[in-house]
């Protein structure tokens, strides 16, 4: 009897917690569209001096998750990406390693084999990436498998259909269950902001994800357009800031997809610094999910260091 009472109490507490989180997130949902877009646009106009630019470009490399998520992925391709992440370019330029390599769950062991003695993390997409359309139990088993195989980080996708239908408590429950299934791995929650339709929805989804246990919130899968944009990222950064002020908990941010140039990367770093402060200017709390970005940043590093511009043919493909 005592056991039944305890289970009932746990269910009741969980119900209150998830519904309270959904209600709070909805209450904080109003976003000033004009303000967000004007402020985000201003970050791209900042002038950065040469010495600060070089440091910023190297910092950007250290924050990158190199990603291969294609049907034609092979162990050899994953191994090549791991080598690129560990040593992005010639050692004389003193460029740090990338933050992580992100792969499908069935390539986690391959990536782990190559990265074990490095600082580069193994991340894996899960929960029926990129759509999220799969029964929850199958999603959780995929997460457990990736974690058992050595993934340091799990990138999950929320069910956008449930979210847009107003089933916020169910979205909360799925995130919380996924967090539990991760074990020791960190959880990055992908909102797929291009399908959420409004900044208000982005704000609500960010709140839900953080309150359900996300270690990072992430804009996009990179599979649809638009992916990451500066206004959307600013909405998410402000949600992180407000959550930190309330709880003292630091949540990470990852814009993914659509960031292709070094100039864009520097603008994002300026936005992070001015919205969240220097504490977030680390790979532990900010990432770029943009494999096509890395070579443009490396070209700019070489140009800044040597004064000579090298074309993309001088750099290996990401």
What CATH architecture would you give? Alpha-Beta Barrel
> What gap, in angstroms, lies between the N and C termini?
59 Å
Indicate the structural class.
Answer: alpha/beta
How many helices? The count is 12
What is the string of SSEs from the N terminus onward? Answer: HHHEHEHEHEHHEHEHEHH
Q: How many extended strands?
A: 7
Question: What is the percent of helical residues?
Answer: 40-55%
The CATH H-level homologous superfamily:
Aldolase class I
Gist of the model:
Helices cover 52% and strands 9% of the residues. It is α/β, with parallel strands linked by helices and 318 residues long.
Describe the protein's topology.
Elements: H1 2-27, H2 33-43, H3 50-62, E1 65-67, H4 75-86, E2 100-103, H5 108-115, E3 121-126, H6 136-148, E4 153-157, H7 160-164, H8 168-182, E5 186-190, H9 199-212, E6 216-218, H10 230-247, E7 252-254, H11 262-276, H12 293-306
């Amino acid at each position: 009897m005592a056991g039944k009472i305890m289970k009932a109490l746990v269910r009741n507490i969980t119900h209150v917690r998830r519904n309270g989180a959904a209600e709070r997130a909805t209450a904080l949902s109003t976003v000033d569209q004009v303000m967000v877009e004007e402020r985000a646009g201003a970050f791209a106009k900042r002038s950065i001096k040469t010495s600060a630019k070089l440091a910023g470009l190297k910092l950007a490399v250290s924050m990158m998750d190199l990603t291969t998520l294609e049907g034609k992925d092979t162990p050899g391709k994953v191994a090549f990406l791991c080598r690129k992440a560990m040593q992005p370019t010639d050692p004389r330029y003193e460029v740090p390693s990338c933050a992580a390599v992100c792969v499908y769950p069935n390539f986690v062991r391959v990536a782990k084999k190559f990265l074990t003695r490095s600082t580069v993390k193994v991340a894996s997409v899960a929960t029926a990436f990129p759509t999220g359309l799969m029964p929850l139990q199958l999603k959780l088993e995929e997460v457990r498998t990736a974690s058992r195989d050595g993934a340091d980080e799990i990138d999950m996708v929320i069910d956008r259909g449930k979210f847009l239908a107003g089933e916020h408590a169910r979205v909360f429950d799925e995130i919380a269950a996924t967090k539990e299934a991760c074990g020791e791995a960190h959880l990055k929650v992908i909102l797929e902001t291009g399908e959420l339709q409004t900044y208000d929805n982005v704000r609500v989804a960010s709140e839900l994800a953080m309150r359900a246990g996300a270690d990072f919130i992430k804009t996009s899968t990179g599979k649809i357009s638009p992916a990451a944009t500066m206004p959307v990222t600013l909405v998410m950064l402000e949600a992180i800031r407000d959550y930190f002020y309330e709880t003292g908990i630091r949540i990470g941010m990852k814009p993914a997809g659509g960031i292709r140039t070094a100039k864009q990367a520097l603008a994002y770093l300026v936005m992070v610094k001015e919205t969240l402060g220097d504490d977030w200017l680390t790979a532990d709390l900010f990432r770029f999910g943009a494999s096509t970005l890395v070579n443009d940043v490396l070209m700019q590093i070489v140009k800044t260091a040597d004064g000579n511009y090298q074309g993309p043919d001088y750099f290996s493909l990401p």
